[in-house]
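Input chain follows. Return structure tokens only.
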Amino acid sequence: MIQITNLTKQYGPKTVVSSVSFGVAPGETLVLAGTSGCGKTTTLKMLNRLVEPTSGTVLLNGQNVQQADAPTLRRGIGYVMQEAGLFPHYTVSENIGAVPRLLGWDPDRIRTRTHELMDLLRLPTDLLNRYPADLSGGQRQRVGLARALAVRPPVVLMDEPFGALDPYTRRHVRREVFGISELQETTVVLVTHDVTEALELGDRIALMDAGELVQIGPPRDLTERPVNAFVRDFFTH
């Protein structure tokens, strides 16, 4: 579903992502992990061109994303960020329906899909006319995911989606969210610096350090067969 080759991002003389290559299979959850400043979020944002690469290629289902219209590309890729990134002046209903409206869905179809997602994510329908400021942190993250899934995108990108939640809510929400069948059938790339989260959610983990991909593989490979001391220390501290 996703193939990146020699992806590099430079800001002036500083290289923040250096010649990173990996693929993500349809329906797989790949976790981009690493310490703060390692380049994982920049890598994620190059997949939907929120950050333009200096060099390298990103293929999404075989299409070079550089050859696509950027706004159109982003409408077809779900995106969830820390604090959910909801539009504060939109109601819950308006937030979830934002991309379907841009794509010209009729109001009945948007309403049906919105209620379907509310049910799927265990959100009470009496929240539909509330604003993000009225919601708990866990509710905002669920609404953010509902918005990302609204048009059934083949790919969902998540940038520290649970990072703003307290530890108890974080564990509860991530287990509930990743337990829904619709997300299990979607290709997900998730950024986190949380070791437990990476091990729990990733089919594979891509561990980065100083802009480079150090090791990629199933969680057990990285914990039991680390390629160097950095990988070993990351998963034991």
